[in-house]
Amino acid sequence: MRVVGIAVGLMCAMYVPSAVCEELSQCASVTIAGHDTSFSNGAGGPSEGKGLGQIFYAVDTVITKITVWRPPGNLSAIGAHLFVVGVDTMRTPMYPVTQGVLQDGPTIRVYGDSTGRIAMPFVLEPPLILPQRGYYAFFIQPENCFQGFAYAIYQDMENHYPFGSLWVTERAFTSCGLFRANYNAPDTDLIFEIEYCRDTSTAVGQSTWGRVKVLYR
Amino acid sequence: MQCRNLLHSALIGCAAITLIAPLVRATCSDAPSNENVLWYASTNLTGCPAGETTGVASHASRVRIAIDYSDMDCNYNAGVPPESIYVTWQNRSGNVTVNDKTTNTYADDSTDASGHTNVTLPSLSGNGTIRVWVTVSGADQGFQDVVIRTLDTDANGRITASDTTSATDVNWSGSVTSTDKNMILAHVDHWRRNALHGTLVRRTSLCDTCPDHHPNTKGEGALSWSPSQRYIAYTAFVGYASDTACKVFVVPSAPTDGNLMRQITNAPTTGHDYDPSWSPLNGVIVFDRADTMLISKGLFGNFGSVDTTDHIISHSNKTGCNDGGDNWPAVSPDGQWVVFSRCKGYAPPTLPGGWALWKVPIAGGLPTVLTDTTTSSTDKYAQWSANGQTIVFQRNDPGLGNQWRLFKVAATGGSTTQIFVGPTSYADSVLRDAVQPSYSPDDSILTFEYGNRHPSLGSQFTHTLNPLLSSPDSTKIIPNYASFLLRGEEAVMTPRLSADGTRLALNTSQIWAGRRNMNLPPAFTSITGTPTGTLTVSDTASVVSSDWDTYDTKTEYVVNASDPESNTITYNAFFRPAWMNWDAGTRTLSGTPGSGNIGKVYYVKLLATTASGGSDSFIFKITVATTGPMMIDRGALAPTLQVISDNPTQGPLLVRFAAPPNMVTRLIVFDVAGRRVASLEGKGISTLRWDGRARGSKRIGPGIYMYRAEVANVRKSGKVVIVR
Description:
Chain A is mostly beta strands.
């Protein structure tokens, strides 16, 4: 797992392209967490309109972007729809509760190319506000519940991500929707990255500029 | 001309009319005291043999007879079954004909709460006038003449460009113009066999309003007919504690057999079972479980299987498939193979993703691949042709775009051929998919789903296509049952014709069995020339068993069938071994098996069809005999006996004896209470045949019976299950 915390103002001033800064400008800080692409050792995806999902631990409560990746050359004209749902942590293994959808969409279309891994960034506008830190799951379902092999998403098949595992929902065939999580691969994780936004700065004691100068003179 | 009811006389005055007038219900006091059937037939039609709408304003494409039915007190007769309301027709002038329908055409459905129903004659050819008679509850309700013009001017049942040479004024403009001829050209290749219209009968009572995937809602996947076509297998969700699972059910296809929805699969309680495929040998269903494995399961009760446990045929869950392995099975017409889709896995460059078609013996074993495994195409929902030589399926190939297309491949595998794809661009940017193809029992028609994929525009419904067309496009496919619009995209209805071609199963949020308006099908009656004499082929028999003697090089079997309307019957025999000959003219199987074939069992499919598409078939299970006169002539063998029937069996119990000529052979049958039911005797080389009748020729009921066969000091006893 990778967790990165940065002060956006400093970062934007020194290193980061302006477009990224505009995107992040409403956040006092950004945390990026997930399962790094360096762990990918396979890729795959279901058919029959099933959703492919991953239980994760939310390190913060405001999500602005979720990204997964496809292998180079895995070209696809099929859109991908994002869901974020709650998790029943009392069950073993923990179980995604697809009836409780916290985030429905967006749908993105990334055809891809062969030059490098293909990012599928789901930007959440407005951001998803989670009720608390903890366990959640996201699912990616082919647009309109496409019944064929839509695309392959990078996975780690050696279970390096400690906070959850891969789930697949039931067939969405006669009608289209995110149905119940039906299949669990306990040793497999999706490769993913979640961007959290923190819109409040760290609390400090009240003081005046003059007092600070006195203290550090 | 008779005017047998008030509406008829009041509206049209017993004269020909030119427009479709609305049916007006007469008041009770207006109605005759003893006849309260009010009916009216559309006339001045522009028809198409395929039953397709021709689009001429104010001129219908199908003959539709609207009927209102009340009792003597003018109370609506609701729920009167279709069998009680029918229409017959007769040519009055010209060459006009109602295709494939020479006998009664029954109502589309039971009368509704207002006592109303329709009768439809969908497939019309030629030009002229027909007279239609209506009969309700056995009483003649009079007739009406109907004027018909069609695009099939030579009335041969198929529209061709040559039909323009004798074109009529099909658009009713007053003269024959190029517009009329262009209408004909726009319908070239439309065929009478494309028309599937008939009576829709709902067979399930699933919850239409419940949320998807909740208990008692329609399950995912395809459906399948039983070989006797008395049942339809499908899936539905059932509740287990707080969870639900998709399981396989069967339901009678006709209300006369009841409406009981019987659950066939149970454990594991939370696992999903999809896509049942009924073996033509009747007692077994194959389905896929958890989208990873194929399972065969014997069916209990009347279906005759003693072993009702689950047997895994094939199992695969490749890397990168994520809950995908072996899916979408279809049992071959001889019951010996299963074609299915297997996930290719994803690990480029060796594993490209997607699904390919494979086939595997139904008893399990090593699968063989049939379609491409090098690209990421997905091939699924395969179905066999009736002759077992071709497999049709749906394909999505990312290299060809984002549509589902229909393809076919030889049953031995190899190159694939595209059968049909919808247009690839539309103004609404919504793709039209063609999915779930299936052959008619005579291989003359493909039924499949075609329509909009998008959820908000979902309008996929049944279409038909002549599979022999060289380059079919969307003008060559004919919509049927378009009123069935389903929720969501991929709203596949699995249109599948029954084994005799007279019914069409539809898969919506309920299961439907559409009874087609067509001639009655032929029926096999017997096989003559068997070692045991004439074998009767019952109406519901899916398998008939017999021996093929190696010692008798003149062994021949002649199959016999009849047709209720005396239509010409065409015979075929498929899945024959190389040594077996078939003469369709004399309906004869002949040949000499080699010594290496002794003991082998062959499943030969016999098929009888008529031009309307009515069909009958059964599997002739032939065992190459292991005993014969030569063994006795040598004088070196002790007497032997062998039970050669199936168990369970729908046919006779056969025991074959090999013994010296004067040695008595016996077969005694007991019921479970120990009562002797039958006793048969023979001598020497003989086959004793118990035909399921008790002494006094009374036919016994289905159940378990004990038998004892004996010759000299050789005895064999056991149980046999008789199914009906």
